[in-house]
Design goal:
Its EC number is 2.3.2.26. The chain is α/β, with parallel strands linked by helices. The chain is built from 14 helices and 14 strands.
């Protein structure tokens, strides 16, 4: 069983394994110590082997998926002050502007975040974190554009769209020049010149493209340039840039974080059955009725219960991975009606007892997913 205790991380580099205890209560700190002590060469060629203590067996994929799931959920949380929610929602995050910190090694932590992103990518584990479009472009070293601001700050984006679409020679009353007011952490503000002598250069129809290019660059780099450089450095210490240069920002987002909205039809079409269950078995028909009743959040939690991650591969359920490559979501007949469902995350398998009614199935499934602090894994 998998308990909220501690874990062991074995890194197999073709030499005797090194063992490190990673405590769940100190997961991020312990992971930082181990990952940052590894050489660039080891990061690129080693095989991760996660073993949670008190659990029997080897890491065939499930423990590793959960490791990256839990680590990313904590590391990229705005509550750690390294990242913040975008201006548009509470789902996507971006690097937080520079702020006073009592951590002298804060840039090393951004480098660590980059290494985590790289490790998850090369080992094909999805993260429980979604970032703004400019973040992915930074990882790919791609230039940013006006449209990239939409996911970062929609109101600012709309203001710049207005400037782009209107003749600035007819808008002299706005008094725009090549400066921008920047607020400081102490509550004061300062005017920043976007180019030399910018305060004396009025924005006109002739020079507004230059103005837009400069203010976009300022907005995207404001207070985050150094942190971004260190994060990208960590990412490139694990991932060869040539290997990801084939991606655009949208594709990189999908392979790092997957998708969050579950397509039930795709899920069902890519599910297999064992132990006497089949697609037209009455328990299986009830199961899909229950899935339809669930909210998307409940479905994601069920997916995490069975596979170790709540993210869906970019190519849908057909891309689910198990211990030795692609492995479909599987429902196996097991136990009796008094038992709770259990899961084997290494094999993406849900062991579902033959419950007598749809209501009992729903109650047992919800209880297993939402109220159980252990996962049955063999």
């Amino acid at each position: 069983m998998l308990h909220y205790a501690s874990a062991s991380v074995t890194v197999d580099c073709g030499s005797p394994s090194e063992l490190l205890e990673v405590r769940r209560a100190h997961l991020v700190e312990d992971a930082f110590e181990r990952i940052m002590s590894a050489s660039r060469r080891d990061l690129q060629r080693c095989r991760l082997n996660i073993v949670w203590d008190t659990e029997d067996g080897l890491d065939y994929g499930g423990p590793s998926r959960e490791f990256f799931y839990l680590l990313s959920r904590q590391l990229f949380s705005p509550y750690r002050n390294m990242f913040e929610y975008s201006a548009n929602d509470i789902y996507t995050v971006q690097i937080a502007p520079e702020r006073p910190s009592d951590r002298d090694d804060i840039l090393e932590w951004y480098r660590f975040a980059g290494r985590v992103l790289g490790l998850a990518l090369v080992h094909q584990y999805l993260l429980d974190a979604f970032f703004t479009r400019p973040f992915y472009k930074a990882l790919l070293r791609l230039p940013v554009s006006l449209s990239d601001l939409e996911s970062l700050d929609n109101s600012f984006h709309q203001s710049l769209l207005w400037i782009r679409d209107n003749n600035m020679d007819n808008c002299g009353e706005l008094g725009l020049n090549f400066t921008v007011t920047e607020e400081r952490s102490d509550g004061t503000s300062i005017d920043i010149e976007l180019k030399p002598n910018g305060r004396n250069i009025t924005v006109s129809e002739r020079n507004k493209r230059d103005y837009l290019d400069r203010i976009i660059k300022w907005r995207l780099e404001r207070g985050v340039l150094e942190q971004t450089e260190w994060l990208v450095r960590g990412f490139n210490e694990v991932v060869d840039h040539r290997l990801v240069s084939v991606f655009d920002a949208s594709e990189l987002e999908l392979v790092i974080s997957g998708t969050v909205e579950i397509d039930v039809h795709d899920w069902r079409a890519n599910t297999e059955y064992r132990g006497g269950y089949h697609d037209s078995h009455h328990v299986i028909m009830w199961f899909w009725v229950v899935i339809d009743r669930m909210s998307n959040e409940q479905r994601l939690r069920l997916l995490q219960f069975v596979t170790g991650t709540s993210s869906i591969p970019h190519d849908g359920f057909v891309g689910l991975r198990g211990s030795n490559g692609l492995r479909r979501f599987c429902i196996e007949k097991w136990g009796n009606a008094d038992a709770l469902p259990r899961s084997h995350t290494c094999f993406n398998r849900l062991e579902l007892p033959p419950y007598p009614t749809p209501d009992v199935l729903y109650e047992k499934l919800i209880l297993a997913v939402e109220e159980t602090n252990t996962f049955g894994i063999e």
